[in-house]
Each structure stands twice: as C-alpha cells, then as structure tokens.
UniProtKB/TrEMBL annotation:
CDD domains associated with the record: NT_Rel-Spo_like
Protein's name according to its UniProt entry: (P)ppGpp synthase
Domain of life of the organism encoding this protein: Bacteria
Pathway assigned in UniProt: Purine metabolism; ppGpp biosynthesis; ppGpp from GTP: step 1/2
GO BP annotation list: guanosine tetraphosphate biosynthetic process
Gene3D superfamilies: Beta Polymerase, domain 2, Nucleotidyltransferase
UniProt xrefs under InterPro entries: GTP_Pyrophosphokinase (IPR052366), NT_sf (IPR043519), RelA_SpoT (IPR007685)
Length: 219
C-alpha cells in the first residue's frame, strides 16, 4: 500500500493548476523566511548567544503532495492540496539546545505578520517512533497581487541531534516502503531516547560553563 503512495501523481490538468498554486506557497515561504532571517540577525547583533544554528526552507515536491493526499484518502487535486495540507511550504530551524526551542517558538508566535493555526510539541511528547520536534503552522497574507489570499507554512524546530535522527528515520522508512523491520524500528526508538538524554546533558554542560565563566568574571 505504501508503494502506491510513493507512485501517486497528479493528472496533467491538476498538475498545471498545482504549479500556479505553488507560486503562492513560494511567496508565503519567502515572507516567513525573511521574518525568521530578521530574528536571526537580531540575535546575532543584540544577544550574547544566538540560539539559532541555521534555517532551512523547502517546498514539498508535487509527488510528495500527491502521495500525502492519497494516504489521507483525499482526491489528488490542487484544490484538495490547498484545503487539506498545511506543510506544502516548510521551514526547519535548528537550535543549539532543546530548551532553546521553546524560546524561539515564543518569539515566532509573537510576530504580528504570523497567525498561528496550530502547534504540536513533539519534544516533550515524542511520537511512538521516538521522533522529536516542535511544529508550528503559521498563516501569512500574500498581498494585493494574490488578492490578499492567505497561505500556511509549517515551521519545525529541533536540535541538530533531533534533525540527524529524523533524517535517518526518514531514509529507513523510504527504503522499506513504510514497513520497517521491527528490530530496526526498535533500535531507532532506543537511539531517539539516547539522543534526547544527550541533548539534556549538553545543555547542563552549557549551563555549568556559564556558571564557571560568571564566577571567574566576578573574581
């Protein structure tokens, strides 16, 4: 069944409609990316430490959009993609430490140009697979050229270790067409727990170094 989703495609007329719609998502992505770049620049200029390591932006491929629609039992049409999917445009923010994720999320939620549609905390409440990340769906207005339509962008916040695990797990799922062998799934789940512990320990070391530096500066 998973193989069917991987082979899903839009019909030619729907594909043409989707291509036009994708321009709107690219515009929405540019709006969000610019605002996030401004936040990053602020941290670099005005704060001692920038919690943002880097920012990645992407537009979901038409084949992935078609596969997700089919998996949800929805028609593979441009209208269904626009109405039902919130992750066609996506941005991933990699933070230094897990605790930074919540600080950055609050800054994003307070941006006046963003309307927060939903948020899911998979950092504190990971998925059964072990996946950890913080997801925000924000909506932005595109302006008069697009008749002031609004489009959604998914923002994922995670540490470098969480991102490495998620990339590895995605490759494994793709290789096995969504039917991953149980031993491999269990090993990935165990690794996710160890990565989370490592993230916590690294933050404690970071705090300890800050305390040591503070003590030396006060001598």
């Amino acid at each position: 069944m998973e193989k069917e989703y991987l082979n899903a495609r839009f019909k030619p007329e729907e594909f043409e409609r989707l291509k036009r719609d994708m321009v709107q998502y690219e515009s929405a992505l540019a709006v969000v990316k610019t605002q996030l770049d401004n936040i990053n620049a602020y941290y670099n200029a005005y704060e001692t430490i920038n919690p943002i390591e880097h920012i990645k932006a992407r537009i979901k491929a038409p084949e992935s959009i078609a596969g997700k629609l089919m998996k949800k039992g929805l028609p593979v049409t441009a209208d269904a993609a626009q109405a039902e999917l919130s992750d066609i445009a996506g941005i991933r923010i990699i933070s230094s430490y897990a605790k930074n994720i919540y600080e950055i999320a609050e800054v994003i939620k307070n941006q006046p140009d963003f309307t927060v549609i939903s948020e899911k905390d998979y950092v504190t409440n990971p998925k059964p697979s072990g996946y950890r990340s913080y997801h925000l769906i924000v909506e932005v207005q595109l302006g008069s050229l697009f008749n002031n339509q609004r489009r959604r962008v998914e923002i994922q916040l995670r540490t470098q270790a969480m991102d490495f695990w998620a990339t590895l797990e995605h490759k494994a799922r793709y290789k096995y067409r969504g039917e991953m062998p149980a031993p491999l799934a269990e090993e990935l789940q165990n690794s996710a727990g160890q990565i989370h512990e490592l993230d916590e320990r690294m933050y404690l070391i970071h705090e300890l170094l800050d305390l040591i530096n503070e003590g030396e500066n006060n001598d």
